[in-house]
Amino acid sequence: MIRLTKLEEDILNKLWELGKAFPKVLITYLNEPDLPYNTVLSTIRKLEKLGYVGYKKYGKSHEYFPILKKEEYSKSLFKKVFHDLMDGSNEAMLSFFINTEKIDIDELETLVKKMRNKNQNK
């Protein structure tokens, strides 16, 4: 799965949130002022070609909806970051979250308990 541009992610996020929308409606929800209709439409069409978005046709209008699930995209994106930036190291990932996100010891202990339970249930 390829990394999407900010606009592509913004459009997908809105479609995940709304469920479906026409391009003109999407424009009203996007945070970029004066975003040209053609830019949004060509971005949606790119997402469609990638298989991330589908549409239903109403005369000349198209109502778009997400095909790709948000969880699938998030999982794929995280795996890429995990392997590319952290060399697939669980220790590096945990260290990053502990240092950057200020995870406290209680949260860490809860995570360790969950991991132990998961491993025992295998």
Protein architecture, described:
This protein has 122 residues and is mainly α. It has 2 domains: 6-66, Orthogonal Bundle (Arc Repressor Mutant, subunit A); 70-120. Helices cover 62% and strands 10% of the residues. The protein is built from 6 helices and 2 strands, in the order H-H-H-E-E-H-H-H. The chain has helices spanning 6-18, 23-29, 37-49, 70-85, 90-100, 105-120, and strands at residues 53-58, 61-66. Strands 1-2 form a two-stranded antiparallel sheet. Strand 1 (53-58) and strand 2 form a beta hairpin. The longest helix is centred in the middle third of the chain and has 16 residues, at 70-85. The mean pLDDT is 89.
Which tags fit this structure?
122 residues; mainly alpha; 2 domains; elongated; single chain; Arc Repressor Mutant, subunit A
How are the SSEs ordered, and which strands pair?
Elements: H1 6-18, H2 23-29, H3 37-49, E1 53-58, E2 61-66, H4 70-85, H5 90-100, H6 105-120
Antiparallel strand pairs: 1-2
